[in-house]
What we know:
Layout: H1 3-27, H2 34-43, H3 45-76, E1 77-78, H4 82-88, H5 97-107, H6 113-121, H7 137-161, H8 165-173, H9 178-207, H10 210-215, H11 220-230, H12 234-258, E2 276-277, H13 280-312, H14 317-351, H15 356-364, H16 372-398, H17 410-434, H18 438-447, H19 451-480, H20 483-488, H21 496-505, H22 513-538
Parallel strand pairs: 1-2
Amino acid sequence: MNGFNWIKIFAVIFASILILPLFSVLFSVFSPDLDTWQHLIDTVLVDYITNSVVLALGSATGAILLGTTTGYVMANYQFAAKAILQIVLLLPLAMPAYIIAYTYTGLMDFGSPLHQLIRDVFSLPSTVSVLPDIRHLSGAVVMMSLVLYPYVYLLSYAAFKSQPDALQNVSTLAGKSSLSHIFNVALPMARPAILTGGALVMMEALADYGTVAYFGVNTFSAGIYRTWFGMGNREVAAQLASALCLFVFLVLILEKYSRKDARRYVNNLANKKTTREVTGKGLVFIWLLCLLPPLFGFFIPSIQLLYWAVFTSEADTQGFSNLLGNTLYLSALAAFIIVALALMFSYVARMTSANHFSRLNQLLSLGYALPGLVIAVGVISISGWADRQFNMFTISWFDFRPGLIISGSITILLFAYSVRYLSVALQNTENGFARISLQTDAAALNLNPSRWHLLSRIHLPLLRPSILSAMLLVFVDVLKELPATLVLRPFNFNTLAVRAYELASDERLIDAALPAIAIVGVGLLPVCLLIYQLERRST
């Protein structure tokens, strides 16, 4: 058996292991705990369903309004300092929703300096509350919309940018106003891209745990955690997770359906796009319109976090160093493992004539669509079963019970990250392989028939940019991951995200600022990478 066949065998084995948590969650529906389910139906299940739907649809609606408006303006108008605004509009991608939730809660708290300033300016009594309480469902929707609108912005901008001037000219000749053209031509043509962005926002909203838990909103994510740790019923938590999976799969189906008419047949010779110059009052209006989302979604919370971290926080620097070390170690190790797995799966799919491995990669990519808490439920079910089997073996053969070997270890945490973020790495490695001509492979194999030589001497050097991009994206995603880390971390092992959540939950928002601003700072790295890639494509 040659080396490549061994690689294929390992790929099948690892893929089977990575798919197990999903099947574990889905198959949990066949063993329902009727008493607990009846209790949930009588008390909170309707709230879980209603709030999850409202959160997903509300966040998508808000993100579509912000992202589509800014995308249309940036695609159709030319104005001073436009390049700066293009960068600024993407910055909220670096701000996790749970961090912006902590920040605005502290900023708008009854005893906050902002609250006191407004009362002083308008000579109001100290007992008067002038700022709204955001710790409810509508507040969570606003927080999600502010940090997730760039998904819609990027896709709608590309869609509007691809619409040729001929469409506007036809509308003008037909006597239609600019507003009529927007609603009757531009928006319908960009609808598939807009809905795709909205679907991404919905999946992110359904996956969120930190924001809804902090705001006290009963969604499926919060319900899974509460059922697991509050009621001590992991089986029902898994069944709630399977219901959340159905929500996510429904969103994926709707997103795929929305793209069925995405292909537009436009004459390439007429596919010319020019932008209209804007000056004066129009320039001021456009700047205000496009600056408001990143102002509230990035700059205000970042400034508040910096103020807390630098001037008012009494953070334990030694404790922060340990947190930072744990987080960087875990993120780097996870990035290395996940990218190595992605390389193996992508390489096997490329070198195999059948489509089986390509379909397998598509199945493995489903993990990114699932909430981290759902994956944690599936992973702990698998690891718990494996620990029980190992303990039964050691007791029967050696009269020795080792306890939990896998559960509660770094290994199981890395396993969960691999299930969740393999899709991110796969997308980069598959795109990298797609840019390498098959003729290059044929020529290299003619000179040296070793597939290992082909991979190490030809593919890996050419894939270096894709590998680095994949490692960076996975590194930052793992660094920001909250629910899976919160549930699966080893005892007395904390990361920046978990510690920020713990401090915020204890209402120590100022102390949570240092780990939070560190997460935001590192989160800027993939945003910079995205900006660099967009600039390369535009030149």
